[in-house]
From TrEMBL:
Database matches in Pfam families: AMOP, C8-3_MUC4, Somatomedin_B, Sushi, VWD
Main location group: membrane
CC per GO annotation: membrane
Keywords: Disulfide bond, Membrane, Sushi, Transmembrane, Transmembrane helix
Span of domain SMB: 2-41
Signal peptide as annotated in the record: none
Domain Sushi: 695-750
Domain VWFD, chain residue ranges per copy: 418-611
Protein name: Sushi domain-containing protein 2
PROSITE patterns hit by this protein: AMOP (PS50856), SMB_1 (PS00524), SMB_2 (PS50958), SUSHI (PS50923), VWFD (PS51233)
Record has Disulfide bond as a keyword: yes
Annotated compartments: Membrane
Length: 750
């Protein structure tokens, strides 16, 4: 019947069949599911738009007039290619993340087809999809001392189906009053730089100052489009350059004396900053050491502009080997934090060095709900924090103005998160440092918290011996999580033992993007499939697949103290209440493995609160219709170690004294499982070591008419002071950072 169609109904459960994404593996889809619920390729592109994507699964009538509509309001024209495949063009968006879209084949009367498009931060788009500013520095310094000649732009000619193209200049600005309702962002077409030139992948020119008032636009982007479209037409097939400082088109006043022009701009910016709210008070403090910064993965992520894993090319931060950015923007002003470290792992402060980290009035990655300043991904940040750096530091010698408004934060208020882990045939290491082994088979609450409704659930399944028969132990096969009303993320081993990541029950691919901005969280996957989920509370979950089991680490900031329960215990620094049952009774920490088994079983989840996806007959049968804790499964509590067993000798040389490694080799008869357990255990120990608290006494200034020796302000370090010739020192010649967090001695002066 007509009521069982997926037209206009993707994602819904119908009367007799399903239009939900799980219907395919369960074999319960409505007959027209594939026609109306769209799969697209590619699935992602820059938020600037103009990218052509193909609808893979639906053949549409070649004579149809196609309209694609994003977020129910932004319309772009689609088309049907010669092979009968339908295509859409992505629009200019002022946000990142998955964007719903619909397709009409009747010129916009009805939109029965639907899908999602992933809008990506412009600097996270692969280079091949942009046109390249050859020697980008020259573009951005053009007209300053000793920078002239011609500029060259290159692009992949196959990216546009056109024999002739136009090159346009666009500018970005924000209008209205800062931090008010009428503050708006706009990308604006300015003028066409070159018209009807051959699409051969290269264009060189000698730039001239832009006519009229266009030369007041100093931040913008280039767009290449087929010449068949009109100037500045929106949402058409396009290749964009990277966003950049438009030095090359600025007016004669800039070219005649760039330093004077930039100095005036810098002073004007400094005056404006004085009238804006102070965002520094509400951004998170920096971790004290590089080790802490790299371990706190729920709150900090590597800064792509200065990354130790990519050879530490730190152009804007000389002397640094690695910088991190705070993942979440600050709550009220959407500001960003950056923290940079030297080769000794010490934080570099702007007070001591131009290589110091600088916080951002606009978070580089933008922040939900996006759409309006100061939350526009990338571009708000450029306007407040980058172009001003050009004015003050790069085009003129006024960097002290910039550093005055963007000083580094030190780490005196930084409190590291606490970590809990589960791995192997599951060994649990709690937030407060206890460890136990719980080998139930079922689905359990690992941690939950009332303050943000954070829930992390784990599924354990029976382990297999190398010959395929069942072992008397279990391992983590899936983990699902959510915080408040965020998207639900699940990471699992499929029945074919492939690692899968599900977003709201749908398997997602990282083939195009390794980072995704989702609802209430960010998701990152490394090339070797280490998955990190970063929730808006600052809590982080890291998952690694190893040896057929998942290993998991949860990192929680200090606001969760006394607010957690589940298998990972009550996070409060006190181990006495670690084994708290779901009904709030507690058990001694010296309980037997059999009693531990009962404690674990009490944390089985219920169908009503389960976050897992049951999209196969196997999962429905074993975990949905059955009880969540398989009471008939009896695990091995004390594995037997037989000296005559040839495996024991290999086990001893592999595991040495690691009890978890030994346990897992004996119970699974697999050295590979034992080794991945050993590595996970080592990882957890190193992580908790790196997250140990570090005492900082805060920055010390040099005396007027004198110097200081030392830029490390952590516990036990000494800073010494010397006066210039002809001056005498009063106060302390040396000051030591003490365990109280205060410096010894008195302020030095000359």
């Amino acid at each position: 019947g007509a009521h069982d169609s997926c037209s206009h109904r993707c994602g819904e459960l119908r009367g007799t069949c399903s239009c939900q994404v799980t219907c395919q593996s369960l074999g319960i889809c409505c007959p027209d599911y594939k026609e109306f619920c769209l799969q697209i390729s590619p699935y992602s592109g820059s938020l600037m738009g103009g990218k052509d994507f193909m609808i893979e699964n639906t053949a549409l009538n070649a004579s149809s007039v196609l309209i694609c509509r994003f977020k129910q309001k932004i319309k772009t024209n689609g088309y049907i290619a010669k092979d009968g495949k339908a295509h859409c063009i992505s629009p200019l968006l002022y946000e990142t993340g998955f964007i719903p879209f619909e397709v009409s084949t009747d010129d916009g009367l009805t939109f029965p087809y639907s899908g999602t498009w992933l809008s990506v931060h412009h600097s996270k788009v692969p280079d091949g999809e942009k046109c390249t500013l050859v020697n980008q520095t020259k573009w951005q310094y053009y007209g300053t001392l000793n920078t002239d000649g011609n500029l060259t732009l290159t692009w992949t000619q196959q990216a546009l189906e056109a024999t002739q193209i136009n090159i346009e200049v666009w500018g970005y600005h924000e209008t209205g009053d800062s931090y008010s309702e009428n503050w708006l962002a706009e990308w604006k077409y300015l003028y066409t730089l070159a018209r009807e030139i051959p699409n051969n992948g290269k264009y060189s020119f000698i730039p001239v100052p832009a006519k009229g008032n266009y030369s007041t636009w100093d931040f913008g982007i280039l767009r290449i489009t087929p010449s068949s479209f009109s100037d500045g037409q929106s949402n058409i097939p396009s290749i964009w350059s990277s966003e950049h400082a438009l030095a090359w088109h600025l007016g004669k006043d800039f070219r005649n004396d760039a330093a004077a022009w930039a100095t005036a701009k810098c002073i004007e910016w400094d005056r404006k900053e004085d009238n804006l709210p102070k965002f520094m008070e509400e951004i998170i403090d920096c971790p004290c050491t590089l080790a802490q910064a790299r371990a706190d993965t729920g709150r900090f992520h590597k800064d792509y502009g200065c990354d130790i894993e990519k050879g530490s090319v730190c152009t804007y931060h000389p002397g640094a080997v690695h910088c991190v950015r705070a993942i979440q923007a600050s709550p009220q002003y959407a500001a960003g934090q950056q923290c940079c470290y030297d080769s000794k792992g010490t934080q570099i402060l702007t007070h001591d060095s131009t290589g110091g980290s600088t916080p951002d009035r606009g978070h580089d990655w933008g922040s939900p709900p996006f759409m309006k300043p100061p939350r526009i991904p990338g571009f708000s940040h450029w306007l407040y924090d980058v172009i001003s750096f050009y004015y003050c530091c790069l085009w003129s010698a006024n960097c002290h103005f910039y550093m005055k408004n963007r000083p580094s934060s030190d780490c005196r208020r930084y409190v590291p998160p606490r970590a809990a882990s589960a791995f192997g045939d599951p060994h649990f290491l709690t937030f407060d440092g206890l460890n136990f082994t719980f080998k139930g088979s079922g689905e359990y609450t690992l941690v939950e918290s009332d303050i943000t409704y954070l829930r992390v659930q784990g599924r354990t399944q029976q382990a297999r011996f190398p010959n395929g028969t069942g072992a008397q132990v279990t391992g983590l096969s899936a983990v699902a999580m959510q915080e408040n009303n965020s998207d639900v993320i699940e990471i699992r081993y499929s029945e074919e033992l492939n690692l899968e990541v599900l977003l709201n029950q749908k398997v997602i691919s990282f083939s195009e993007q390794s980072w995704m901005d989702l609802k209430g969280l960010f998701l990152h996957s490394t090339a070797d499939q280490n998955i990190t989920v970063m929730f808006s509370s600052g809590s982080g979950v890291e998952i690694r697949g190893s040896g057929g089991f998942l290993s998991l680490t949860v990192l929680l900031p200090d606001k969760f103290i006394n607010n957690t329960h589940g298998l990972f215990g009550v996070m409060n620094g006190n181990t006495d209440d670690e084994y708290t049952f779901k009904n709030k009774t507690t058990m001694s920490i010296h309980a037997s493995p059999q009693q531990m088994f009962e404690f674990g079983a009490s944390w089985a989840v219920e169908n009503g609160t389960s976050l897992f996806t049951y999209d196969t007959e196997f999962l429905l049968k074993n975990f949905f219709y059955e009880g969540k804790h398989n009471a008939s499964f009896q695990p091995v509590f004390f594995p037997h170690e037989d000296p005559a067993d040839p495996l024991v000798k290999e086990m001893v040389s592999l595991c040495e004294s690691d009890p978890f490694c030994r346990f897992d080799v004996l119970t699974t008869r697999s050295l590979q499982v034992g080794n991945s357990t050993r590595l996970s255990h080592q990882y957890h120990k190193l992580l908790t070591e790196n997250l140990g608290p570090v005492i900082s006494c805060g920055w010390l200034d040099h005396p007027t008419n004198g110097i200081k020796n030392g830029t490390n302000y952590l516990l036990g370090t000494t800073i010494s002071f010397l006066c210039n010739q002809g001056y005498e020192l009063t106060g302390s010649k040396e000051r030591i950072c003490q365990v109280t967090g205060a410096w010894s001695g008195d302020t030095a002066s000359c």
